[in-house]
Amino acid sequence: MHYNEIVIQRVIESKTWCNIDNIIISIEFKNVNLRNKYLDSSMTITESFQNQIVKLLEREITPAVGCTEPIAVALAVAKLTSILDNIPEHIEVFLSPNVLKNAMGVGIPGTGMSGLPIAIALGAVIAQPELGLELLATINNEQIEIAKTLVDSRFFKISVKENCVEKLYIQVTGTYKEQSAEVIISKDHTRFSFIRLNNNILYKTSKEETISDETENFELNFNKVCDFAFETPLEKILFIKKSVELNKAAAIELNRTFVAVAVWHHHESSVGNSVANNY
Q1: Overall pTM surpassing 0.85 (yes/no)
Q2: Fewest CB atoms within 10 Å of the CB: 59, 120, 226, 233?
Q3: 3-state secondary structure the chain
């Protein structure tokens, strides 16, 4: 038996990963015949369980411009603003302790600023909730300047949601003239669970949806993850490719920027040393 095949067989039999030839293993498993040779023809996890993990992956691999917590807050504010059809005169933001902790000091891409105030202001300025977590993908300098002005005006108040049991909970309320609105995002960064304009409830999570959310808390362990990886058809998880491409593009841009900065520093250092040596 070929050495690489022995490694693969041991991986499957022991259900543990080894540090030898990990890259070769992943390449070899692209060969369908080799995969079928070592895997039992009968599936060890159900299609329903497969679908649950796929839904979990889809939820966790959602593309976002910036850290998900402050962007989710910006998304809630964007929804609030779109409902009021104007930038609110005053906004109150209530957050679960976990969201507040993760969002307080995070940098907001393209602004040179960090934290919730600028995220809230940008959400109000952009007001395009249909963009989801990519809300900040197209911001321009004019929008950033307007947002900075809003931050300086202190048109918002941020508080911890009392007795909040959810890890992810974002509630924003706002007013514009005689109008008032409220938006709640909970459980997931893009999951609107409550939307109100004045006394009219525009949307509220149904009991059936709440029950469905609770049933998604299924148990995972290493063996089940391995079974999922080996048995799930690739077409079910092709959406992961988009995240790979986005991360690759980000890495290339970061590398390009890093090289440019490194060259600049080297040039400055060289010029400085040259000047110093002439005196």
Answers
A1: no
A2: 233
A3: CCHHHHHHHHHHHHCCCCCCCHHHHHHHCCCHHHHHHHCCCCCCCCHHHHHHHHHHHHHHCCCCCCCHHHHHHHHHHHHHHHHHCCCCCEEEEEECHHHHHHHCCCEECCCCEECHHHHHHHHHHHCCHHHHHHCCCCCCHHHHHHHHHHHHHCCEEEEECCCCCCCCEEEEEEEECCEEEEEEEECCCCCEEEEEECCEEEEECCHHHHHHHHHCCCCCCHHHHHHHHHHCCHHHHCCHHHHHHHHHHHHHHHHHHHHHHHHHHHHHHHHHHHHHHCC
